[in-house]
TrEMBL record:
InterPro entries named among the record's database cross-references: DgoD-like (IPR034593), Dipeptide_epimerase (IPR034603), Enolase-like_C_sf (IPR036849), Enolase-like_N (IPR029017), Enolase_C-like (IPR029065), Mandelate_racemase_C (IPR013342), Mandelate_racemase_N_dom (IPR013341)
Protein name: Dipeptide epimerase
Mandelate racemase/muconate lactonizing enzyme C-terminal domain residues: 125-216
Pfam family, one: MR_MLE_C
Provenance organism: Ruegeria aquimaris
Source superkingdom: Bacteria
Signal peptide: none
Amino acid sequence: MQIEVTRDVFRLAQVFTISRGSRTEAKVLTVRVSDGAHQGWGECVPYARYDETLESVEAQIAGLPEDITRAALMDLLPAGAARNAVDCALWDLECKRAGKRAWELAGLPVPGPEITAYTLSLDTPEAMRAQAQKNAHRPLLKIKLGTPDDMPRLEAVRAGAPGAKIIIDANEGWSAEVYADLAPHLVRLGVALVEQPLPAGQDEALIGMNRPVPVCADESCHDRASLPKLKGKYDVVNIKLDKTGGLTEALELRRAALAEGYGIMVGCMVGSSLAMAPATLVAQGALVTDLDGPLLLAEDRETPLEFDAAGVHPPSAALWG
């Protein structure tokens, strides 16, 4: 088995800003695994929040043995970007070897399109209202907040897109007091979900707190090992393949979270259609799908995912799986 890692850069359609900073491009790692007759590929987005860099993730992948399998990979690498790219590449390789689609190998029903959120970049209230108006035709908008001036921004987005469903990602930027103060206003403005309002290491305050708007664990939930610490704090878990370490664990986390009564959100980092493709399987029937990475790009893979009024469609075999 040969494992090849390359760096790819995709220009964004516009500057994308969250409370942690701004970017103009998506830097990803593309992993290709080959057995000489077939080749599979996958993509990951190293994330500084989890102490990942392009170099550190490349080093993790470089240390893998040539006879790597998906089962062995779970023990050799921790949950994270490196394991994600290799795991998804191995899924793609298995599909090509078997001449079957990924959902067939996983024993899942044939997938269909899912309505996806579209994320508005953090900006002034006036600019965010303009963004909302431009995208008011979309059924689900996501707002990146987590600053002292969140309410004017939220009010502006609601005014710009009065008919859209809105979810919020606070990116660990609030305190328990701020969330409690904002909650009635979130209800008034029709917010359907709040992602990670408190820092992952300081979310004990959510236990016993009135949550009129469902609260979703993002930074607090990585894989199945995260679930015991979420009890009583969260209503929904956000499954991202770059956190779970690939499709294999993402599917298991989904099953376990549903069994424990959590709603499912399927999210992404800002990456190409290749990164989103495996996640469309996890997103089937999810409470919230947030796989808009390709919609934020000015350029994409040669055979991109299809997005239309029905949502994000499962990948063609030419793309992945």
